[in-house]
Amino acid sequence: MKERYEDLIAAAKEAMEKAYAPYSNFKVGTALRTSSGRIFTGCNVENASYGATVCAERTAVVKAISEGEHDFEAIAVVSSSGRITPPCGLCRQVLAEFSEDMAVVLAAENGDAKVYPLYALFPEAKLPLDTEK
Ligand code: THU
Q1: CATH (domain of 23)
Q2: Is 0.85 surpassed by the pTM of this model?
Q3: One of 57, 97, 109, 124 is an active-site residue; which one?
Q4: Distance (Å, rounded) from C-alpha 53 to C-alpha 121?
Q5: Which single residue of 3, 44, 57, 92 has CA 20 to 30 Å from 10?
Q6: pLDDT tens across 60-69, in order?
Q7: Would 107 be classed as within a structural domain?
Q8: Nearest atom in ligand 1 to 86's CA
């Protein structure tokens, strides 16, 4: 399973080097593969306001959408923590907007990796909003 994502994990590690994280010192890199086979990378971009920080996952999503790609097959996430780094709730929601079936590949420096379908990390993303039914 993991082998299928080795190229994405490698691209995410390379992107992590570009992280702008002077406040947390927690660098994150991502690589997002579209259904058409293109790869978009991302890193976290922090800000002195803290609140304006953009996570690495959303950086990659915004790059892909702005290039006309809306269908995602997988995203790999790596960080400088040495452990696997699950995406925050906000990023799960943003990913689910486009591809609930995508694979979320969480990889650690030592080679450990876990692969989840996004719907397992963010279930029932498209519940009907009409609460009377
Ligand atoms: N961060 C990400 O970019 N992605 C994650 O999945 C977890 C957290 C960033 C946000 C912030 O710049 C730093 O890591 C610490 O939370």
Answers
A1: 3.40.140.10
A2: yes
A3: 57
A4: 22
A5: 92
A6: 999 999 999 9
A7: yes
A8: 6
